[in-house]
Amino acid sequence: MEAIKCDVLVIGAGSGGLSFAAGASQMGADVVLLEGHKMGGDCLNYGCVPSKALLASGHMAHAQGHSAAYGVADGAPQVDYAGAKDHVQNVIDTIAPVDSQERFEGFGVRVIREMGKFVSDREVEAGNYRITARRIVIATGSHAFVPPIKGLAEVDYLTNETLWELREQPKHLLIIGGGPIGMEMAQAHRRLGSEVTVIEADKALGRDDPEAASLVIEALRGEGISIREKTFADEVRQEGDDIIVQTRDGEALRGSHLLVAVGRAPNTEGLDLSRAGVETTPQGIRVDASLRTSNSRVYAIGDVAGQGQFTHMAGYHAGVIIRSILFGLPAKAKTAHIPRATYTDPELAQVGLTEAEARDAHGDALEIARFDYSHNDRAIATRQTRGFIKVMVVKGRPVGATIVGHQAGELIATWSLAIANRLKMGQIAGMVAPYPTIAELNKRVAGAYFTPRLFESDRVKRVVRFVQKWLP
């Protein structure tokens, strides 16, 4: 067994691990990176990238059949599902070199394509290597959680990790789970011509603002997707070529394919964390505000740290620990400015507190600023007027923003910036957006916050009358 010593060992070549390894190596640290599966992790190979690519295929099919309002005759799209999957693979292949072993070796990282497990508080074995590191970063991500539904193990179900291998278009796709993954894949497949039924034990998009979520759910139902809320999947069985989901209330839902999309579970199995004194929770590895585990030499970032399962969260975590590991400076991870987005049409995005959370936290000090897409000239021009933006404001500063509508995922970045830097609404109102753009919504909602202060204030009117009276 070959012995290796290094400054930092990174376990996992997903977004967080790659970001940290590249930065640390280029700043002079001796870095070893372990990856026993695919470079780029879940996001590139099974998650963010392929799902958005398939949504793009669905968007093109939908646009062909809904163009009459623009003066272009509707046409029946001729969908090639296998061709759509070719598009997905092409997108992955285009991005893959950015995450490749060769590129990171070019940065000076030693990449070992093996799974790792702890043998002591600072040693990890991987294949024929034993690695001793001054600091260790666990960035192993998460995987699709498979619930203990009776009969599920006996049917050929799909997850987000196996869906991309499917070349035959589902005639009727059953989806267990009405969260972001389930709803995105529901719309993509419906627009590509499949029948789709979503089975959700609670509320679809239940983590999000109810008003915003209901707009998305209404839109998807309008496209012919059956969304069964408060419906518990009690048993799954195969009948011929069909899969049957038996609900708790006795209904049998029949489909050709089944996608399980009920959430994610941290990848901690096989790491032998107990041998390193690293504590875990049901959400992942227990970390403090600096992302350090119960072993002071070991850090955890991204999905496995249990603070949010977003690629951009993992990248942010990598930046936090670079400061502490490489420079010995204090650094703490925050969550208030981390946005999330669901890329349905309309899109749904959130950063900071929802309205309900803000009311609980701030009570009467909370003010709500709101602006509807229907008053945005670009949205009117492109017939994308469905949606709104609302910002939760306390003492002039935004503490949360909810956006539902076209490009919501793009618009939310402004409010992440505002919350991260404690900007005031006046600073957002002071920006200038090109006309006409969807981006004007951010400026207009800030203006809506000031409208009652300026146009409905007797004091302001008295001041203006006084000034006008005495100006030469």
Automatic annotation (TrEMBL):
<dbReference type="InterPro" id="IPR023753">
    <property type="entry name" value="FAD/NAD-binding_dom"/>
</dbReference>
<feature type="binding site">
    <location>
        <position position="200"/>
    </location>
    <ligand>
        <name>NAD(+)</name>
    </ligand>
</feature>
<keyword id="KW-0285">Flavoprotein</keyword>
<comment type="similarity">
    <text>Belongs to the class-I pyridine nucleotide-disulfide oxidoreductase family.</text>
</comment>
<dbReference type="Pfam" id="PF02852">
    <property type="entry name" value="Pyr_redox_dim"/>
</dbReference>
<feature type="domain" description="FAD/NAD(P)-binding">
    <location>
        <begin position="7"/>
        <end position="317"/>
    </location>
</feature>
<keyword id="KW-1015">Disulfide bond</keyword>
<dbReference type="GO" id="GO:0050660">
    <property type="term" value="F:flavin adenine dinucleotide binding"/>
</dbReference>
<dbReference type="InterPro" id="IPR012999">
    <property type="entry name" value="Pyr_OxRdtase_I_AS"/>
</dbReference>
<feature type="domain" description="Pyridine nucleotide-disulphide oxidoreductase dimerisation">
    <location>
        <begin position="338"/>
        <end position="441"/>
    </location>
</feature>
<dbReference type="GO" id="GO:0016668">
    <property type="term" value="F:oxidoreductase activity, acting on a sulfur group of donors, NAD(P) as acceptor"/>
</dbReference>
<dbReference type="InterPro" id="IPR001100">
    <property type="entry name" value="Pyr_nuc-diS_OxRdtase"/>
</dbReference>
<keyword id="KW-0676">Redox-active center</keyword>
<keyword id="KW-0274">FAD</keyword>
<dbReference type="InterPro" id="IPR036188">
    <property type="entry name" value="FAD/NAD-bd_sf"/>
</dbReference>
<dbReference type="Pfam" id="PF07992">
    <property type="entry name" value="Pyr_redox_2"/>
</dbReference>
<dbReference type="GO" id="GO:0016152">
    <property type="term" value="F:mercury (II) reductase (NADP+) activity"/>
</dbReference>
<dbReference type="InterPro" id="IPR016156">
    <property type="entry name" value="FAD/NAD-linked_Rdtase_dimer_sf"/>
</dbReference>
<keyword id="KW-0547">Nucleotide-binding</keyword>
<feature type="binding site">
    <location>
        <position position="52"/>
    </location>
    <ligand>
        <name>FAD</name>
    </ligand>
</feature>
<feature type="binding site">
    <location>
        <position position="263"/>
    </location>
    <ligand>
        <name>NAD(+)</name>
    </ligand>
</feature>
<dbReference type="GO" id="GO:0003955">
    <property type="term" value="F:NAD(P)H dehydrogenase (quinone) activity"/>
</dbReference>
<feature type="binding site">
    <location>
        <begin position="177"/>
        <end position="184"/>
    </location>
    <ligand>
        <name>NAD(+)</name>
    </ligand>
</feature>
<keyword id="KW-0560">Oxidoreductase</keyword>
<feature type="binding site">
    <location>
        <position position="116"/>
    </location>
    <ligand>
        <name>FAD</name>
    </ligand>
</feature>
<feature type="binding site">
    <location>
        <position position="303"/>
    </location>
    <ligand>
        <name>FAD</name>
    </ligand>
</feature>
<keyword id="KW-0521">NADP</keyword>
<dbReference type="InterPro" id="IPR004099">
    <property type="entry name" value="Pyr_nucl-diS_OxRdtase_dimer"/>
</dbReference>
<feature type="disulfide bond" description="Redox-active">
    <location>
        <begin position="43"/>
        <end position="48"/>
    </location>
</feature>
<keyword id="KW-0520">NAD</keyword>
<protein>
    <submittedName>
        <fullName>Mercuric reductase</fullName>
        <ecNumber>1.16.1.1</ecNumber>
    </submittedName>
</protein>
<feature type="binding site">
    <location>
        <begin position="140"/>
        <end position="142"/>
    </location>
    <ligand>
        <name>FAD</name>
    </ligand>
</feature>
